[in-house]
Amino acid sequence: MSAYVLILDDDADVATAAQLLLRRRYGKVATLCDPAGLPALLAQGVPDVVLLDLNFTPGFIDGAEGLALLDLLRAQPQPPAVIAMTAYADVPLAVEALKRGAGDFITKPWDNARLVAAIDQALARRAALRGPTAAAPDLMGESAAMRELKALIAGVAPTEANVMVLGENGVGKELVARAIHALSRRAAGTLLAVDMGALPESTFESELFGHRKGSFTDAKADRAGRFQAARGGSLFLDEIGNMPLAAQAKLLTALERREVTPIGADKPEAIDVRIISATNLEETRLFDPAVFRPDLLFRLNTIVIRVPPLRERREDIPLLLSHYLTQYALQYERPARNVSPAAMDGLLRYEWPGNVRALRHACERAVILGQGADYALSDFGLPGSGAVDGDDAAPIPARAAAASDMTLDALEREAIASALSQFNGNISHAAKTLGISRAALYRKLGKHGI
Ligand SMILES: Nc1ncnc2c1ncn2[C@@H]1O[C@H](COP(=O)(O)OP(=O)(O)OP(=O)(O)O)[C@@H](O)[C@H]1O
Q1: DSSP secondary structure string for all residues of 289-327
Q2: Which helix (H) or strand (E) holds 51?
Q3: Pick from 252-256, 264-268, 398-402: least confident
Q4: How far apart are CA 117 and CA 1, in angstroms?
Q5: Please, are residues 85 and 110 in contact by the beta-carbon 8 Å criterion?
Q6: Is the pLDDT score of 192 beyond 50?
Q7: Nearest residue (CA) to ligand 1, atom 15
Q8: Any residues with Cβ below 6 Å from ligand 1, and which?
Q9: What is the reported pLDDT for 448?
């Protein structure tokens, strides 16, 4: 990650040890042993995090000089997060540092994992302070649940922690993954998405780890795997719960060693990716060792983000409706219309088993097929949403009749939308019904921007 960490310690050995530990993890790690050089260094750029030795001058252990440096750091226009270090487990001094604005403190000799965790947390807090609601602009919703989700994303994004996103079909897990990447220090790198459920076991290693020319019949040239292609960025492993156990073992080895060996290569290659994974598997299934290896789970779910289903944040429905109805009305050049009060009532009460994806498809359908002055509940074509009530206009027009003025492209969209809605957003079932592979369905979803 491209965070800038400064180690301010008069003991050059200590500073170097910390630098060696941290520079593999953070973009820039500088050391400074003479505090007189601090103003000049700050003039060149303020670090994100400073590890500040409080007992700075040898022989002086009251911490006065360290605290003065802390004040100087805190006085910067965009002050760094400061983690105070003390060799003496000097609690009063550490407390004084916390009072003066240090975010955390650790004692020397430090525990490596604790030090890294403290830096990650400091970075997360800084990001959260930048304002969680400004984060994740694509994720719409102002309900308490969505605000909490966005705050969590903003807090977690700048850390290097692997994140597992859980939630039902169509709740927005991929959007969450994209938001995490966009707000992370890897944002300048790529976010590469891999549908783990659609990856055939036979090509699993080649796809993920790459291969060398001639290593098998079809290996006509060297090929980088997804791990190499995402270097410096994030790898989004979608549908992780659908991975066969054998593939899980291979993925685990790569994550444990933090290196992959392309097929036919004699040397492993170090990996530099952050893993964001997602699944719609229920947690009871995910925690079943017969379904998912606990050791792999442990590697992937450092942070778990649960995306709540739409029925648990119904306040977001009007906003999402208005967004998608407007978007599709523009796209299909249809007039802007309101949702009738009765339709709104039905849409608010609907269970939305396919979540936001289903809502989006329902809006598209309503825009294409709706005939009344306002949108009626029946225009949204929700399975089991109940009868059309008094206020609402005509019954749902027959698809065949409406299809005559639709383009082939729009028909394809409509077929995909109704298959997804029929199976509550379940990609595997929808693909089966449409007679195409899951991978092909994903491509079509991308093509239609669904
Ligand atoms: N909060 C939201 N705001 C706006 N659009 C959303 C939101 N959540 C989901 N969507 C839209 O719903 C659709 C499904 O979202 P996404 O692909 O992220 O869901 P998912 O949980 O990854 O689905 P699946 O489990 O089926 O892969 C996308 O079109 C996405 O843009």
Answers
A1: TTTS-HHHHHHH-SEEEEPPPGGG-GGGHHHHHHHHHHH
A2: strand 49-53
A3: 398-402
A4: 14
A5: yes
A6: yes
A7: 172
A8: 139-141, 167, 169-175, 278, 280, 356-357, 360, 425, 427, 450
A9: 76
Domain boundary among 78, 105, 129: 129
pLDDT in the model for residue 386: 53
Q: Residue 58: its pLDDT value, please?
A: 53
Question: Contact 348/314 with Cβ under 8 angstroms?
Answer: yes
Cα torsion through 333, 336, 342, 344, rounded to 10: 90
The alpha carbon of 307 and the centre of ligand 1 are apart by a number of angstroms equal to 10
Q: Which two tokens stand for residue 190?
A: 């790529």
What b/e sequence results for 223-259 when a residue is b if at least 16 CB atoms lie within 10 Å of its CB, and e otherwise? Answer: bebbbbbbbebbbbbbbbbbbeeebbebbbebbeeee
In three-state secondary structure terms, 371 is coil
Q: Identify the DSSP state of 185.
A: T
Q: In whole angstroms, how large is the CA radius of gyration of the chain?
A: 27
Distance CA 260, CA 267 (A): 9
CA atoms of 108 and 88, how far apart (whole Å): 7
Q: What is the pairing mode between strands 269-270 and 259-260?
A: antiparallel
Can you tell me the distance from the alpha carbon of 240 to that of 251, in angstroms, rounded to the nearest whole number? Answer: 11
CB 410 within 8 A of CB 368: yes
CATH of the domain at 407: 1.10.8.60
Give the residue with greater pLDDT, 207 vs 138: 207
Q: Which of 406 and 217 is assigned the larger pLDDT? A: 217
Give me the amino acid identity at 135. A
In this prediction, residue 385 carries a pLDDT of 62
Closest-CA residue to 2 (of 188, 235, 193): 188
pLDDT for the residue 394:
33
Torsion of CA 403, 409, 413, 416, to 10 degrees: 90
Residues 424, 344 within the same domain:
yes
Residues 149 and 285 in one domain: yes
Ligand 1, atom 12: nearest CA belongs to which residue?
Answer: 357
Integer Cα distance of 285 and 117 in angstroms = 30
Top mutation candidate among 164, 165, 171 for ligand 1, by most atoms within 8 Å of CB: 171
Question: Do 354 and 280 share a structural domain?
Answer: no
Which residue segment(s) compose the domain that 260 sits in?
138-308
Q: Please compute the mean of the pLDDT values over residues 102-109 and round it to a whole number.
A: 82
